[in-house]
């Protein structure tokens, strides 16, 4: 298969919440859309940290480039995690709100912020639909920790159809993405999980 055909196959399986092998790694069916200058200039090791959790990584230098790419899609998949720089977060969230996107996880990389500043930022950001979750992180380690939580949830629930509502996250150090015990039990009864791993992510390609 050509690179374009592999990408189309991966995107289709992502929408179906299935795992797919690429380059010896297993994807969990979810994507991380990484937006900002840090994403564009990041060392390979940082991207590999995300890929090792099972995500396909797509990089955009700014929110407007990502928005233009998303304009070509009829919907924003709930299996997408947006990892957004502090500078790009307000405009990106406004765009996602205008698309009435549901079930999304948005992680704001506010590296170097104090807990108080992170809380103030979370309060000032545009709000999304009730079943979306926004997390402001004050360090890269916290970003990776949040993505690890989402990956574990994705593997346990096994696809977008089983993804329940997530309580909105408002404090950088206190709130975590969580699934209620009842919802998790229902999801477990309805479907299986998938394996973790990583892949070679694609830049500027939603």
% residues in beta strands = 15-25%
DSSP strand count: 8
What fraction, in percent, of the residue positions are helical?
25-40%
| Shape designation | globular
- Overall SS class: alpha/beta
Order of helices and strands: HEEEHHEHEHEHEHHE
Rg over CA atoms, rounded to whole Å, is: 16 Å
Strand order of the largest sheet: 7-6-5-3-4-8
Mean pLDDT: 76
Task: Quickly count the helices.
Answer: 8
Uncertain runs with pLDDT below 50, 5 residues or more?
13-19, 159-202
- Main β-sheet: number of strands, strand sense, barrel status? 6 strands, parallel
Q: How far from one another are the termini?
A: 20 Å
Structural overview:
With 206 residues, the protein is of the alpha/beta class. Helices cover 40% and strands 17% of the residues. The protein contains 8 helices and 8 strands, in the order αβββααβαβαβαβααβ. The protein has helices at 3-15, 37-41, 44-51, 63-70, 89-98, 115-124, 140-157, 181-190, and strands at 20-22, 25-27, 31-35, 56-60, 80-85, 105-109, 133-137, 202-203. Helix 6 links the parallel strand 6 and strand 7. The longest helix has 18 residues, at 140-157.
